[in-house]
Amino acid sequence: MFEDYGDEEEDEEEEEDVEDDGGGQGDSDGEEEVGGDDATTTISGVLNTLSQNVRELSLGTCGEVPKVVGPLSALEFLREYVMPGRPCIITDAIAHWPALQLWSSNEYLCSKLQHQHISLHCTPDGRADALVPISPLVDDGAGSSVVFVSALVEQVEFPQALERIVGGSRCCGCLQEDDEVAYAQQQNGCFKSEYSSLASDADAHIPWATEALGCTPEAVNLWIGNQRSVTSFHKDHYENLYAVVTGEKHFTLLPPTDLHRMYIRSYPSAHYVRGRSSELVIEEDRPTAMVPWVSVDPFPLPLDRKEAESKYPLYFDGPKPFSCTVRAGELLYLPSMWFHHVRQTPDPKGPTIALNYWYDMQFDIKYAYFNLLESLAAIV
Ligand SMILES: O=C(O)CCC(=O)C(=O)O
Hints:
The protein contains eleven helices and 19 strands. The protein is an alpha+beta fold and 380 residues long.
């Protein structure tokens, strides 16, 4: 996720270009009108019109993600979903996986992965790769600033990792609000490496998707989390087939044509480290690096809601996002470049477990249009 918005140099260049054009981010007064109404004469008006047209012509305006019975034929998948870039939930596509029965048993998982070390992503509150306000060490009068923080990744033997994820290390066996949150979410094709002993429980690829997309997956990732693990809004340069095996995942989705509603800004990058009492503390990256990231949190705390609405009106006052819950046994097709924010509800007996297949996207004319959009959105 981290590198999805391009490298720093490119972003610095983009910002310089914006300044050269005389337009600052968030300054719509500088926009030039060319005559006619706002929907066709200002950049933000044109972007809103594009987003609305795409909904009306292709995606639908109700914000629902269609559910279809699988497995799909390669042709139907390509024609109905991949080419128009429309998400869908496919039922009955993974019903044959032994994982659907086996992975709701923590004992089974621990026996298969008894001595296996896995990468565990640790945060104080479940928000990895997310924006966090920090207070300066010295009060310079500027108040707090916001940094982009990555999780601390620890190598832990699977049985201990699972215990930390589900909160079993507590005497009552349940997670407390002030516990740190552990999320197994290594995104480097970990299913084939860290979890190779589970390989026979699920397919190595989704056959009709492989046929439609003309390649095997670039990465297959396993996700094991709890109700406090949240993935902040971002997009990926992959076609994503996301299978839920236990529990439920709640997706909030926006199409690439809503980019201007995401308020992408550059933030200093930071990471969590262990402090003196082994608590997680934020350390800014040195040398300083800036990460372009979506500013919008779609679910602010009730106390912060008003402020969020006034800072990000294009998001909160605009068309509602597409949202869906993907249940155990279902497969979500998440088209490349769609913004997604993910929450989860665990299985009553254990964590939420999902397996996702990232297929390379086509870097074609749609991608070129998206880059154009990115440049335009930076001006408004
Ligand atoms: O399941 C999650 O927490 C995030 C999934 C995601 O971002 C992805 O599959 O690209």
